Amino acid sequence: MTRWKLWLVMVVVFVAGIGIGVGVGGTGLFLRHKVTTVVEQGAPAISQLLTHKLSGRLDLSSAQEQRVIELFNTTQQKLAQLRRRIRPDVQILIRQTVEEIRSDLSPVQQQKFDVFIQSYRERWQEHMRQQKEG
Q1: Distance from C-alpha of 97 to C-alpha of 73, rounded to nearest angstrom
Q2: Rounded CA gap, 22 and 56, in Å?
């Protein structure tokens, strides 16, 4: 292969790499924005997003879209009630599992495990605090 062909191949590969990097970065930013929006707006945003997806695939009428949104919102409320009812049992099960894991560890491993678990507890408490506020 001549030098100029090799140079041309390298340029093409370089430009393709930049294009892929920009595409991946742009997709990441878009997804972060979508997830942040859904998290901030909660159940109504989830209902809107799911309805939009269904409408695009099924060509729903306005009346059908409205009905689907209502159904999604009702389901979200029922799921929230269900989560509130089972949360204590889930927390007990998680605590038991953590203690069982911890009991099999050496003292040094237990200290590291405690730090590891504490970070999850803090995030969970923050999540629960935000749920109560919003």
Answers
A1: 34
A2: 27
| pTM for the predicted model, two decimal places | 0.52
Residue 107 has pLDDT above 90, yes or no: yes
Listed residue (88, 84, 85) closest to 131, CA to CA? 84
How far is C-alpha 102 from the chain's CA centre?
28
Q: How far apart are CA 119 and CA 99, in angstroms?
A: 16
The C-alpha angle 78, 82, 83, rounded to 5 degrees, equals: 115
Q: Give Cα 107 distance to the centre of its chain.
A: 34
pLDDT in tens, 24-77: 555 665 556 555 665 556 667 777 878 888 888 889 899 999 998 888 888 888
Dig out the tokens for 83 from the structure: 């989560």
